[in-house]
Amino acid sequence: MIKQLQNSLKDKGMGYCALIISPENRKYFTGFESSDGFLLVSSDRAVFITDGRYIEAAEKQILNCEVRLLGKTYPQIAEILGEMNCKHLLVEASRMTVATYNSLKGVLKSTSIATDSTLDSMINELRSIKNEDEVESIVKAQRIAEDAFQHILKFIKVGVTEKEIALELDFFMLRNGGEGLSFETIAVSGKNSSMPHGVPSNKKIENGDFITMDFGTIINGYHSDMTRTVAVGFATDEMKNIYDAVLKAQQNCLDNIKAGIPCKTGDMFARSVINDSGYGKYFTHSTGHGVGVEIHEYPNLSPASDSILQVGNIVTVEPGIYIPEKFGVRIEDMALITENGCRNLTNANKELIIL
User: Fold this and answer.
1) Are 243 and 352 in contact (CB under 8 A)?
2) pLDDT per residue as tens digits for the range 167-179
3) Do 305 and 262 contact (CB within 8 A), yes or no?
4) pTM of the model
5) Where are the beta strands (DSSP E) in the chain?
6) Is residue 17 classed as helix, strand or coil in its secondary structure?
7) Does residue 231 contact residue 239 with C-beta atoms inside 8 Å?
8) CA 302 to CA 296: how far, in whole Å?
């Protein structure tokens, strides 16, 4: 990963270096997870500095760059950048605080600090294209989530609460190999399911409820993400029609996305079906987002996105329809973009399940 960043810095010209401070990007480039540390990269060198809590583990685990014990933070950063003959420092502008910027500016007298999105864009592009190991980790995480879905279908019954469903999903994923939760699990039912990111409550499941469950786990630092909506007891004709519209929208997107098309076109493959069904105003979010070492990554299947899908992108495809004070439906898979289409990484059943 670091070599790719070094190549990008080399393309910028002489004297360009990068300072990486965010935990997610430190993890991405070094493979080492820590709450503290700084990664400095030039076209031909990389140095990771961290404090005494992590130094021994870092020295053992990090193989692609030099590891040093953290001393006086900003003078040490300035010293290393001096060794690298850094004239132009690129920083994570979207992740750096003003306080950190001011501290850097105070010690870097002969080095310019780029406060634009140059480094963010470089990293977004690199992270968005997954290699085989990254795909394998995401698939492993997804398989655990799918097993959790099969488990929860046996757990759900009238009288259990949304919180109990969410906790059962969490416990199953963690008990069966998940390193952590991709995000706070969503399990909302009945009227609550009309809120796309509703919070599980003490509401009890009733006959005739839709239950929307959005959840995932982590393997090797990589996230999975899936959503399924099921009915309990029975589903009205309206519920069935809306579920069918969402499923058709998702499938149209999965059937048509591929490398080389704009992300906004990918969004429209799903959105146009929901618009044609008459529920367009109830589809209130983007069709999907990238997934990797963070649950929301570049690129986004959004009507506002000018990005182009590339081979190796992994994006969610998750259209939804949400009728306020009635119910909502969302169905979500993860898709690996290929030259001529996509590979659906999600195996779980998507036909309407009535428990």
Assistant:
1) yes
2) 999 999 999 999 9
3) yes
4) 0.94
5) 16-20, 38-41, 46-50, 66-69, 88-91, 112-114, 186-189, 210-215, 218-219, 222-223, 226-231, 288-290, 297-301, 314-317, 320-323, 327-330, 333-337, 342-344
6) strand
7) yes
8) 13
